[in-house]
C-alpha cells in the first residue's frame, strides 16, 4: 500500500495548501471533506504563507541580481588599491620616495609587499587607510602619486563601499523574509497534517483506491514503495488479448 508523505519544502507545502483550498471552494459546504473550522483556518493562513514565500523569493532574486554589480565593483576597488600600493612601492625602490612614507598608510611592516585584500573587511580597511594616509602625506609636503591617482582610487573605493552597504541591507531583508517563512512553517505543517487527517478519515470507508484518489484532490500526497512501483509497471506492460 502506498503511504502518504507530508511536504518537506516550502513550495511543496504551498502546493498542498493551495490544492486543498481550490478543492474546498469547488464543492458545496456539505460535501467537503474538511471541517468548517479547518476550512476557515486555511482561508486565513494561506494568503499569509503565500505572501511570505513571495517576499522571500523576491529578496533572494534581488540579492543575486545586485551581487553581480557588487562583485564587479569589489574587484575594481581591489585592483585600484593594490595598484596604488604597488606604484608607491616601486617609487620607493627607485629612490623617488622615502621608505618612511609607508608609515602614513600603516604599511611600514609590510615592506615592499601588498597587504591582504581578498576579504571584504581587509579591502574596506586598507582602502580607507590608503586614502587617509595619502591625504596626510600630501599635507606633510609629499608630491602626488599617479597611475593610478588617489582620486581614482577614492572614486572606485567609494563606489564599492556604497554597494557593499547596499548588499548588506539586501542580506538583512533576505534574512528577515526567511525568518518570516520559518515562523510560519510549523503552523503550515500542523495545518496540513490536520487537514489530511480529516480528509483521509472522511474517505476511509471507500475501497479500491477510491479513497486515495479523492484524498489526492485535497492535496494529500501518496508515495508508492519501490516494490509497489515495479508491480504497477509490470501490470501496465502486460499485453492485452482480444477474444
SSE topology sketch:
Blueprint lengths: L2 E2 L5 H17 L9 H58 L26 H20 L10 H54 L6 H7 L5 E2 L2 H12 L6
Antiparallel strand pairs: 1-2
Helix pairs in contact: 1-2, 1-4, 2-3, 2-4, 3-4, 4-5
Description:
It is a single chain. With 243 residues, this protein is mainly alpha-helical. Helices cover 69% and strands 2% of the residues. It has one domain (3-237). It is built from 6 helices and 2 strands, in the order βαααααβα. The two termini are 33 Å apart.
Structural class: mainly alpha
Tally of alpha and pi helices: 6
Q: Helicity, in percent?
A: 55-70%
Intertermini distance: 33 Å
Order of helices and strands: EHHHHHEH
Please tell me how large the radius of gyration is: 32 Å
Q: Which range does the strand content fall in?
A: under 5%
User: Average pLDDT across residues?
Assistant: 92
* Largest sheet geometry: 2 strands, antiparallel
Inertia-based shape: rod-shaped
Got a strand count? 2
- What is the strand arrangement across the widest sheet? 1-2
Number of domains: 1
Contiguous low-pLDDT stretches (5 residues minimum) are none
Amino acid at each position: 500500500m502506498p503511504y502518504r508523505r507530508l511536504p518537506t519544502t516550502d513550495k511543496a507545502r504551498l502546493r498542498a495548501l493551495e490544492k486543498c483550498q481550490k478543492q474546498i471552494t469547488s464543492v458545496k459546504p456539505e460535501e467537503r471533506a474538511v471541517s468548517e473550522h479547518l476550512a476557515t483556518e486555511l482561508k486565513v493562513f494561506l494568503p499569509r504563507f503565500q505572501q511570505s514565500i513571495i517576499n522571500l523569493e523576491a529578496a533572494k532574486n534581488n540579492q543575486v541580481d545586485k551581487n553581480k554589480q557588487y562583485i564587479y565593483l569589489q574587484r575594481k576597488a581591489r585592483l585600484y588599491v593594490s595598484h596604488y600600493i604597488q606604484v608607491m612601492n616601486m617609487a620607493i625602490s627607485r629612490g623617488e620616495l622615502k621608505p618612511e612614507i609607508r608609515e602614513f598608510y600603516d604599511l611600514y611592516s609590510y615592506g615592499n609587499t601588498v597587504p591582504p585584500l581578498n576579504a571584504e573587511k581587509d579591502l574596506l580597511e586598507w582602502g580607507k587607510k590608503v586614502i587617509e594616509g595619502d591625504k596626510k602625506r600630501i599635507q606633510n609636503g609629499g608630491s602626488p602619486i599617479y597611475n593610478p591617482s588617489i582620486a581614482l582610487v577614492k572614486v572606485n573605493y567609494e563606489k564599492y563601499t556604497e554597494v557593499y552597504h547596499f548588499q548588506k541591507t539586501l542580506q538583512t531583508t533576505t534574512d528577515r523574509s526567511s525568518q518570516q517563512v520559518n515562523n510560519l512553517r510549523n503552523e503550515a505543517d500542523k495545518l496540513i497534517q490536520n487537514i489530511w487527517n480529516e480528509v483521509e478519515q472522511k474517505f476511509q470507508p471507500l475501497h479500491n483506491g477510491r479513497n486515495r484518489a479523492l484524498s489526492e484532490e485535497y492535496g494529500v500526497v501518496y508515495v508508492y514503495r519501490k516494490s509497489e512501483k515495479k508491480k504497477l509497471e509490470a501490470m501496465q506492460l502486460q499485453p492485452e488479448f482480444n477474444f
